[in-house]
Amino acid sequence: MPHSPSSIDVTRLASWQALAAHRDQLDDFSLRQAFAEDPQRFATFSLNDCGLFLDYSKNLIDSRTRELLVGLAREAGLAQAIRDLFDGALVNASERRPALHTALRRPIGDRVLVDGVDVMPEVQRVLNRMSELVGKVHNGLWRGYTEKPITDVVNIGIGGSFLGPQLVSEALLPFAQRGVRCHYLANIDGSSFHELAAKLRAETTLFIVSSKTFNTLETLKNAQAARSWYLAQGGSEAELHRHFMAVSSNREAAMAFGIREENILPMWDWVGGRYSLWSAIGLPIAMSIGISNFKELLAGAYRMDEHFQSAPFERNMPVLLALLGIWYGNFWGAQSQAILPYDHYLRNITKHLQQLDMESNGKRVRQDGSPVTTASGPVIWGGVGCNGQHAYHQLLHQGTQLIPADFIVPVSSYNPVADHHQWLFANCLSQSQALMLGKSRDEAEAELRSQGLGEDQVQRLAPHKVIPGNRPSNTLVLERVSPGRLGALIGLYEHKVFAQSAIWGTNAFDQWGVELGKQLGQGVYARLVGSAKDAAEDGSTQGLIDFFRGRHRG
Ligand code: F6P
Fold it and tell me: Pairing mode, if any, of strands 473-478 and 52-55?
């Protein structure tokens, strides 16, 4: 019988116990052997849907493992949790909110109720408004204070109001409309503002202040810096509305900042920051790629939503990725997960998935406040291939930790240069192959002997050349990065993260942990600038404050 997803200790379920016993039986499992024994292994453990091909055959699993993992998802009540997510139940219990980012990609005519009100007409209204604004900018009808058309759009935002939009607009550069360049200003570090401002002309720049809450320190400071810069460059208060827009659920704060009411696009409480690129927070994306491509992005994510809701768990991409993550994190002791895109345009996906996964699943209590009894979300890290191969892949191959990796790679490049793409693709495959196959002691010795080394040298070097192998990975292949496929890819990871939280019983949609640093930041700042005279809470922080005060020059 499925249980209510948030009230159970998943480790006490019969399916969990069965998985623990099964894990012990797999101690000697060899991927090399599994492939040698089963010519159908690739077909058995791969699937193709929503424009994505997932090969998960290089995992430490057999058919029984998949059966048991799916059994866990069933017993933990995942099917009900998925229905709850899409139906607008209060899946964010601590904040008593639904998480309805999926409503943003639903087709016209669907109904989604929040507090008894259908939100879809409002979603459509905002999308139409985005379409109008993008049209005005692209057609040169939105003009700056000197009547010149806008050439540069700067998104001022951080976290979810930055990482998703930046990932998508940069991944879809081949779809960018001519005439408008998009930039991102996130960090409070003055150097990032300085470097960006040097590239801009105030008269042709439009700033979008993106902040769900409109009270994020970094964003407000950057917005103020941008306003001062605009005024110093010759802009006037009277023409400010031509250069500043906002996307926020805090209309009053945006207006108090000086942004005209008609220049504010809304956000809603029922969309989390890291799930918000599908909303008006995606305005810089639409400014870059145009509204029809933006709608294609939404449609791709919608296809993944449909797949997540309807595919049987054995053939459900987000569910399988979620279960594999649980398999390694909870049964094999893995503490991190590498995300390795082999595509220049997807180079920012690791950063987006870091926030998506770690802010969602970095939780230590369940929805009902009781402590989790097993590990929750892993550390997400990685970066673009092949670069990582010459930097951190060594640890993947020979380090002492088990680190599952997701390789993401397109079949075709938008910019073919000689045979570079074939080499890029080959490197991607050979990395997952090397992780899996490794190199045995016998192979290492034979290789050294074939190089003509004497036996003492062979024995000296062989231990260093042994690569254990049996390291698991998934490979996600896209024909090409397109708006639809990218939408599906991001949707895939969103649902993977949710499915894991539902199984652990945690809340994927709050982030209380980040608040403490913000609170303490106020006191540290006051002591740094001398407006607070009392000592910091601890000697280390006070020592560092003193060090700063003694040497600060600007
Ligand atoms: O501090 C964390 C966080 O709240 C993220 O969850 C969010 O994406 C980011 O800050 C930005 O928040 P906002 O869009 O409200 O400025």
Answer: antiparallel
